[in-house]
Specification:
Helix content is 76%, strand content 0%. By secondary structure, it is mostly helical. Helix 6 packs across helix 11, helix 7 runs antiparallel to helix 8 and helix 8 packs antiparallel against helix 10. The radius of gyration is 27 Å and the shape is elongated. The relative contact order is 0.10.
Length: 296
């Protein structure tokens, strides 16, 4: 093996080690999140098991309160009563208060992360050889199936119906129709890519219009996140701002499709559409739609 071959071999090995390290870090983060949600689900299930006893306890407390409210003065062992009921609050701490919005934010944050894994698989970033390529294709298709099962396009359209501009909704319908035509092999990739890119422009335009304090103001993703998600914590706003990088990546891949560049992934349009839906889903679920102007 000559010096050039040694250098190339060392470089390839270094790249593999670096990418393996990134994969391990990603797995650690994903496993921690999965364990957290599994523990939450297990505790919630366990909580439902005690509901019959809670219901009976409530019935007894309702009776005791109603009975005392209708009675006159009487001799009661208040010290023991206080100790008993105080113990109740000790053995059954109050659960955190959740709303429907909490579940939505959990899903949006999860999608923000899992979509990155999908991007890595579907754009060939994890591909090392023929077998890896087939595995990546299979995993990307599984993710597509998950999104189809949960009707992600319909979910995104419903979110967009709350946007300021009716034109954005029309852009979504056009992009969806263009993509479906390509899937049916009667449409053109370039036309569908143009429609998807136009949709991305429309969504960003509506968000920027809602975030501006005055005409012509220069708005950044961080500014938009701060103004349209003022009640979110710093981590949530950072997730919204991070979508700038996600959007730019999808936009760049759509540009490659428009230029019909060689070497594009065979599923480039399908990948771009799925990533676009994820991007819109994450952003629109994390901003406060009530702060956006009414639809025109």
């Amino acid at each position: 093996m000559n010096r050039i071959e040694l250098t190339e071999h060392s470089t390839e090995r270094a790249v593999r080690l670096m990418e393996g390290h990134k994969r391990d870090e990603a797995l650690q983060s994903l496993r921690v999140s999965r364990a957290h949600l599994e523990e939450f689900a297990a505790r919630l299930t366990a909580a439902t098991l005690i509901m019959p006893e809670v219901a009976v306890s409530l019935e007894e407390l309702h009776w005791a309160i109603d009975a005392l409210e209708g009675a006159g003065p009487m001799d009661l062992d208040v010290a023991t009563l206080d100790a008993s009921l105080g113990h109740l609050q000790h053995i059954l701490p109050m659960m955190p208060e959740y709303s429907a919005a909490t579940g939505t934010l959990v899903h949006a944050a999860t999608t923000s992360g899992t979509s990155l894994v999908y991007t890595a698989f579907s754009t060939g970033k994890l591909v090392m050889g023929p077998e890896d390529s087939q595995y990546a294709e299979e995993q990307a298709l599984l993710y597509d199936k998950i999104q189809a099962t949960h009707k992600r396009p319909d979910q995104v359209r419903e979110l967009l119906s709350s946007l300021a501009s009716e034109s954005t909704l029309r852009r979504f319908d056009a992009a969806r129709e263009g993509y479906d035509l390509v899937k049916a092999r009667i449409g053109h990739r370039q036309g569908a890519a143009t429609s998807i890119r136009t949709l991305l422009d429309g969504v960003k335009g509506d968000l920027w219009a809602a975030a501006r304090h005055h005409e012509g103001e220069n708005v950044t993703w961080r500014t938009m996140a701060a103004r349209l998600a003022p009640n979110a914590d710093n981590e949530a706003r950072a997730l919204i701002a991070a979508q700038e990088h996600i959007r730019n990546g999808v936009y760049s891949d759509l540009s490659d499709i428009l230029k019909d560049r060689e070497g594009a992934h065979v599923r480039d349009l399908e990948t771009a559409w799925t990533r676009t839906l994820d991007h819109i889903w994450v952003v629109m679920n994390m901003v406060d739609l009530r702060r956006m102007p009414p639809s025109k």
